[in-house]
Amino acid sequence: MRPDFFESKLDLKKKNEKTTQLSDQKELSLQYPRHPSKPQLIPRDLVVLDKMSSRPSRHHTSHGGGSVTKQLDRKIENLVRDYYSKLSSNNSNNPKPIPNTNEAIDYVQAHDMGLKRLKRNQIEKSVTKAMELITIEVGGTAGENEGAEEFDSDFEAFNEAVDKDNNSANKRIVEMWSKNQASSRNTPAPETQIQPVDGDASQQLSKDAQTPARRKRERSSRTEPPVKKQKIDRAPPTSVSLKDIGGIEHILNDIHDLIDMPLNCATCYDHLGIQIPRGILLHGPPGCGKTMLANAIAAHHGVPFIPVSAPSIVSGMSGESEKKLREIFEEAVKLAPSIIFIDEIDAVMPKRDSAQREMEKRIVAQMLTCMDDLSLSKTGGNPVFVIGATNRPDSLDPALRRAGRFDREICLGVPDEVGREKILRVLSEKLKLSGDFDFKRLAKLTPGFVGADLSSLITAAGTFAIKRIYDDLKVRHQIGTAEQDEGVSILNGAMEIDGGPGLANGKPNPILEDAPNPFPPLSPEELEKLSITIDDFLTALPKVQPSSKREGFATVPDVTWQQIGALEAIRKQMQLAIVKPIAHPEIFEAVGITSPAGVLLYGPPGCGKTLLAKAVANESNANFISVKGPELLNKWVGESERAVRQVFMRARASQPCVIFFDELDALAGKREDATTEATSRVVNTLLTELDGLSDRKGVYVIAATNRPDMIDPAMLRPGRLDKALFVALPTAEERLDIMKKLTMKMPLHESIDLWKIADDSRCRNFSGADLSSLVREAANSAVEAFFPETAAEPQRIPSGPITVCPDNFEKAFGMVRPSVSEAERIRYMQINKKLLGY
């Protein structure tokens, strides 16, 4: 520690304050005269008032200890003053003695028992403060007389007196520090750098004191001016209109009521005191046209359009997300009438009960507040509409879906055959199609396709059409090859020369030869012949997977009634229960039949129950959802029930729709025989979905099982699966019909009698699956007999046609056994009688 430790910035500040304090201290010295040889202490209260008049003293600034610390400092200061007075009176030779810190602490603790209990370091801080204040007062009074005598004559001489007095006071403080250095205990070294005491130092101190603020101003002046926020164009879209969207005729009336009327008749709503609709929620599977519909609505009405991507609202700073949302609504109110479109709204506004972060709860609360402020009285009589789009409406907070916020919910489901045909016609308006293009056929072949899937199909078909025209040109423009020694070949306008990329070391390179040739430009005549045909669409169809298939929809199988033998009676019942209500719903509504029937197919395994459901789905041209019973079961509580609800929710969003439950007994067993509560909850969910408060209009249910006795009886009551159809083992005549369908494409020997095979006693309990296995084994036997037993030349294929002979069927009979025994057949007959009630 250096001797100039006390020459700190605080001392320099105090010296600068002397200039303003000296005149007032002069008046105080006149009021309280001093002895010529002894220093006279000015009363403490007056000194404090004197210092506070210009700037609060260090003694009276807050140190973080509150009033208790101030009282302690005041008490110790009074005791130190008493100690200094006694020390001055006892030492006549030195009227201004320098007190010792340790002695002063001992004096203070000896004269106050309360202070004696405190720690020495606590008292030492207060004693040091008091001694600094007394030292400044004593040094100042000595210089005041000299300064007062010269004050009236010359102000410069006064400044010199002040500097001289300050230096003398500093010398005394240094001397006092030297005496206390030996007895000080663990005095920490100062961390700040000490500046020399002179006039320039005081100026430098004041300059340094202003450095942080000055530095901040300099940084702000050096930085580039803030970039003005670019104004975003909120003009309505011009690239889309309602005419460009097909299959939305059923929702145009809702759009008219919710947006057209409030925009054109806002004064009528205000006059009648009716609140205008504020929000519309569009929901449906991905790719069904929610975003396109919102843009078309804004373009149709010509109002400002504010598109918002829900994830763009989220910010990392607390409160920024809510601020962004408020700014969006404030901008919409300024531009009113206007439309706010929030895409994927479920991403940032989920249910608050299941929200993972507090930020999501705050965003939902801010959204609720903003939507409540969209009344006509707060928007200047101009309506502001909010359109939200989501694939998961059930994930939204319920408070958003109540009346007054998102008033109406419009479902854009998977289009039916008629809707797909309209969408295809709209998408193909600018395409060059062949003259005999069949839209109805293509719409029938694309079940489960939404608008985005159909657009992708058109793109793929166009690609295949371009490939097709180039393949034709390659054949048409190929002019042959040149001589081998010249090594020149011309193909489609491309040339290859010896030593070029097509040859390596004078030999052909098969890898480079197989590389595709570049496509030459087409002439106007060739472009005129280019068009997309239905065959191009059929070629591209297997390459495009509908998005609804990922959502649980199955592609409608290509099984027709012509491929199913027998089962004529069941076919008529299925057509009456499923196919005809879908094809002609108005006829059934005319006779009061509005609720679709549920069909339960039961019987021995392999009798064609699943095949019947596939044929019905194909003939009805409806959307088809295939559910394997066990696939909905989940080990987590509530997940199985949620899976059942989602199946029916997807079906209601894609009316008309056929739901096929295969192996229903695994999903809806008897509740009294259930080993766990999970099975009962799944059955209860199925019952409520089949015939509960939810509307099942347009949703048809087909279930199949080979254990109807295990299904809960409540599933079979009227209104649910009320039509139970028994698919029994085929008779001899039905087996003959099935054999004819199975061998339709099989080369049979002319000596084969199918009736003889169908009427064989060994086929008594054969099901349709057993007959299919019999035919397949007979074909395998014929293929095995076609090849020679000893293959000396394994690559040689025998000449002549291959046919299936009676011997092949005899060999197949020895390999195939009926899957249903006689006892099981009798048991199924008894179950059928029990279900029929006799």
What is the topology?
Elements: H1 9-31, H2 44-54, H3 66-90, H4 101-111, H5 113-116, H6 120-151, H7 155-181, H8 199-209, H9 211-222, H10 249-264, H11 266-272, E1 279-283, H12 290-301, E2 305-309, H13 310-313, H14 320-334, E3 338-343, H15 358-372, E4 384-390, E5 406-411, H16 417-427, H17 439-444, H18 451-477, E6 489-491, E7 494-496, E8 503-504, E9 507-508, H19 510-513, H20 524-529, H21 534-540, H22 547-550, H23 568-583, H24 585-590, E10 598-602, H25 609-620, E11 623-628, H26 639-652, E12 657-662, H27 677-691, E13 699-705, E14 723-726, H28 732-742, H29 754-758, H30 768-786, H31 806-813, H32 822-836
Parallel strand pairs: 1-4, 1-5, 2-3, 3-4, 10-13, 10-14, 11-12, 12-13
Antiparallel strand pairs: 6-7, 8-9
